[in-house]
Each structure stands twice: as C-alpha cells, then as structure tokens.
C-alpha cells in the first residue's frame, strides 16, 4: 500500500468522522449517515489495499 493511498484513506476516514460528529451535533441525520458511509468506504479501500499487498508479497516469494 502506497503512502499516498494510506494518507488519502485516512483523510477520508477523518472527514467522515467529522461529518458524522457535525451531523450528530446539529441533528442532521443525512450528514451523520454520509459521514458513516465515508468511513465505511475508507475501510473497504484499506482492506482492498491490504489484499493487494498480500498478493504481491506471495508473488514475490514464489518468484
């Protein structure tokens, strides 16, 4: 996983947490849910990157 990908995913996660908190504080359920969705997307991207890293590692060991 590249450093840029990690930073981008972390930024998306933090942005989602901020949206969720702002939505919760103002009673805006749509904003709160959008923040939660951003966090989930970030987690899915992280998982995908980890799978790619693992596959690359296995490939390197086989060659």
Describe this structure in words.
The chain is an all-alpha fold. The chain is 92% helix and 0% strand. It contains 2 helices and no strands. It has helices at 3-26, 29-62. The longest helix is centred in the last third of the chain and has 34 residues, at 29-62. The two termini are 20 Å apart.
> What is the beta-strand fraction?
under 5%
Work out the helicity level: over 70%
Measured between the Cα atoms of the first and last residue, the distance is: 20 Å
- Largest sheet properties: none
The residue-averaged pLDDT reads 92
Number of helices: 2
Along the chain, the helix and strand elements come as HH
Task: Decide which structural class fits the backbone.
Answer: mainly alpha
Residue stretches low in confidence (pLDDT < 50, at least 5 long) are none
Calculate Rg over CA atoms: 16 Å
Shape: elongated
Q: Can you count the beta strands?
A: 0
Question: Layout of SSEs?
Answer:
Layout: H1 3-26, H2 29-62
Helix pairs in contact: 1-2
Give a quick rundown of the structure.
With 63 residues, the chain is an all-alpha fold.
Identify the notable features of this structure and list them briefly:
single chain, 63 residues, mainly alpha, 2 helices, 92% helix, elongated
């Amino acid at each position: 996983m590249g450093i840029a990908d990690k930073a981008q995913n972390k930024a998306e996660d933090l942005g989602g947490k901020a949206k969720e908190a702002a939505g919760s504080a103002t009673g805006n359920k749509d904003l709160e849910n959008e923040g939660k969705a951003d966090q989930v997307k970030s987690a899915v991207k992280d998982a995908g990157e980890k799978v790619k890293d693992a596959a690359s590692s296995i490939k390197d060991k086989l060659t």
